[in-house]
Amino acid sequence: xxxxxxxLAQPMRPPTAGRVAACLGFFVLGAVVGVAGALVQPGWFxxxxxxxxxxxxxxxxxxxxxxxxxxxxxxxxAGWMLAVVLLTASRPEGDFLFAAGSGSYLFLLGGIAxxxxxxxxxxxxxxxxxxxxxxx
Length: 136
Hints:
0% strand
């Protein structure tokens, strides 16, 4: 058995306290970006929608790069989705934040698509050491 084993063959370790704290911070960041995007996108319709979706993409990709794994992006996307879903629910008084217009639907569906794409395209966690190629 060699000293360098596959990452899949190594036992799982619990995450460090710093990694957990970073993930909690990125969850809150995703929620804040979702609330800000929900407020900005109807105000300046085409530009506000693009700004909100770019902010979400930056938060998800930035969280993935900061944590050096897809978990950061997934956590930020989960915070965004939770905030937006909670904002779509109407209150007993009849108040709501999202109108039944194309901009709101583009924000909801486009935001989900951006979150999935950015969390998937983010760099995965790599084992320590140098880069490895097959058939080396």
